[in-house]
Structure formats: C-alpha cells, structure tokens
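Milestone M4 deliverable, item 7.
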Amino acid sequence: MIKDIVVDLQLGEAGAPAGDYAVSLATTFAAHVTGVAFIYDAIFPESAMGYISPAAIDKQRQDNEAEAAAAVNRFAAAAARAGIPAEPLTLTADFANVGSQFSRIARHFDFAVVGQAEPGTSAIQETIVESTLFEAGRPVIMVPYIQKAPLKLDNVMVCWDGSRPAARAVADALPLLTRAKRVEVVTITNDWGKQTEIEGADIGRHLARHELKVDVERIAAGDVDVADALLSHASDSDADFIVMGGYGHSRMREFVLGGATRGILRSMTVPTLMSH
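Output delivered:
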C-alpha cells in the first residue's frame, strides 16, 4: 500500500518532472506527498575563499533561497491542481551531506521519488540518487529528466535475475504491479543465466498468483551491455515503467554502483523503481 510519498524537488526547471510525477503517483493511490527543496550553503573553490566578499556569499545564498522557493511553489501548485494532500518543506543542507540527509528523511515514507541527474549538470543530483537508493531502506522511483507524462502503468517491465535486490524490487513494486494492464518479466541470459531457473520459484508464476497478467521474456545479451539490452527491449516493447534491483558493492564503506544500475540511471528513458 502506498499512502505516504516523499520527493526531492530539484532546483531550477529540471526539478519539475520529479515533483509532477510524484503528484501523479499520489493521485493514483490517494496518498499524501511531501516535497523537499534544499537551500544549499554557499560554496566556492577553496583557493578563492580568501578573495570572496561577504556580499558574494550573501548573493549566492539568496539565489539558492529563491530557487528553492520556486521549486516549492511549483510543487504546491501541482498538488493543489490535483487536489491531493501535500506538504512542501524547505531545508538547509550542504553539498557534502545532502544525499544522506534526504535518505534519512525518506526512511519515514513508503516511497521516495528522485529525479535523474541531467548530463552536464552538478554532480549533487547523482549523490542524492545513489544515497537514497543505498541508504534510505525504501523503494525509490527514479524519474528521467525528460519525463513529461504522469504515472502510467499500461506496460510494466520487471527485470529479473533471481537476485536479492530483484526480489526486493518485485515485492516493493506489488502495489504498482497490481494496477498494471500488462507485466513483462525480462531476464537477460548469459553464461550464468540458467541459475535463475529454480524449480518452484518461477517469478512469473508467483506474480500470476497475485492475479497479474504476466508474460516472460528471455533475452540473449550477447556482446551487448546488460543495461543497453534492457533499455533497448523497453523501447521495443513500449514499456512505460521499469522495476529492477539496485546493485552495488561496498568499497571502504562507500557504495559503488553495479554496471547495470549505473547504465540505467545514466540512460533511462522511462520511470524506474529500484530497490536495494
């Protein structure tokens, strides 16, 4: 059941897709949605700190406050048009800790919604996305920066490899899958692909027992990267939502994204639910 959603409201015009998508998700499930906009502390190159005037620091802070206020106002207006209960929040943060800060907030909600980092922009959005995936302990819906349409569940693609993150993602996605018109389970086969074919644990059969209309598709990746194979199939099958596990491993207490996860986050074209 989805009744409480939080969304990271990116600053600038790029923030609109995630906020609008979260509103459409809340509308579908008659849920409450909280929008969080961060006012970042002024930041300048360390080498220039002795030359930065107080006026320049104040100006950057004011600009950040104005962008956060604009993001909150856009979100509040979208929620009001949809007629859903919503709470806009404006919080202060610094670039180094904002990912962990939003992750801690997300632990108090059913779902977190974050926007994809747009290429060529600040790396701060990548930090928020990765931190939320690995630290929040909640399912995360990643919204492409090109997203215009609201939540649509006509054709949901589930990426399945028999792993723990994949199983977690399927379980977390059930409230969405039960509203889907069609669910396609996609497995990328390779040298170890048959290890997922465990007798009595067929994921398609499991979902069918939830009264879902399920098709199962096995794709030979060949020399194609797994993420590229998944995205290519999503395009060919006209998928409008993807469900997959978020993969990573710890290195010196920091998570390093798995190849498929990294590829999807960089090149995604449809909203994607990830769980870790």
